Automatic annotation (TrEMBL):
Pfam families (alphabetical): EFP (PF01132), EFP_N (PF08207), Elong-fact-P_C (PF09285)
UniProt cross-references to PROSITE patterns, sorted A to Z: EFP
Organism: Pseudoalteromonas luteoviolacea DSM 6061
Protein name: Elongation factor P-like protein
CDD domains reported in the protein's UniProt record: S1_EF-P_repeat_1 (cd04470), S1_EF-P_repeat_2 (cd05794)
UniProt family annotation: Belongs to the elongation factor P family.
Domain (Translation elongation factor P/YeiP central) ranges: 69-124
Lineage, broadest ranks: Bacteria, Pseudomonadati, Pseudomonadota, Gammaproteobacteria, Alteromonadales
Domain Elongation factor P C-terminal, chain residue ranges per copy: 132-187
GO BP term, pick one: peptide biosynthetic process
């Protein structure tokens, strides 16, 4: 059983007899508490989607929920649901757009390495690969002679995600993005 300080976003834990997915974690260190970090976690019930905000002490033990991760690929959008296809047995997984709103900004038909998180037979979330390749739909014109300096500009990708890119990158370029930090890594290998 991990401590609260070891839990990451998108982990599934058992809390009050329910399986919860962690969506957001804020760490705070109140004044006057010797080494006592607090972790405020926003959790969603995997069954009914109910939201719970709870604060845990760093040393508090949490129980990870029984879940499996299945390799899958994005298939299509059906109204408010995104449909993913299991790469091994072709099971379709339907996920509500709201439940994976942050992750869909990194996903298109070509995204490889997706994992569907399944808890007790129900698909509840998506685990993204560490990096994805997406095409820039719109950004300011590239500046001639701009070196790969530290100066950046915003770029809107085909999925709607906005990231900062170096000045020499232009519209139509395919770039590699770190999904954890939401940062430009490099141009993608063509």
């Amino acid at each position: 059983m991990p401590k609260a300080s070891e839990i990451k976003k998108h982990a599934a834990i058992e809390y009050n007899g329910r399986v919860m997915i962690i969506r957001d974690i804020e760490r705070s260190v109140p004044q006057g508490r010797a080494g006592g970090s607090l972790y405020r976690m926003r959790m969603y019930d995997v069954v009914n989607g109910g939201k719970v905000d709870e604060t845990f002490k760093a040393e508090e033990m949490l129980k990870l929920a029984d879940l499996t991760r299945r390799p899958a690929m994005f298939s299509y959008v059906d109204g408010e649901e995104y449909v993913f296809m299991d790469e091994e047995d072709y099971t379709p997984y339907h996920l509500n757009k709201e439940a994976i709103s942050e992750q869909v900004l990194f996903i298109n038909e070509d995204t490889k390495g997706l994992l569907v998180v399944v808890v007790e037979g129900t698909p509840v979330s998506i685990d993204l690969p560490s990096s994805v390749e997406l095409v820039i739909e719109e950004t300011a014109p590239s500046i001639k002679g701009a070196s790969a300096s530290a100066r950046t500009k915003p770029a809107t990708l085909t999925t709607g995600l906005i990231v900062q890119v170096p000045e020499h990158i232009s519209t139509g370029d395919k770039i590699k993005i770190n999904t954890t930090e939401v940062k430009f890594m490099s141009r993608a290998d063509s």
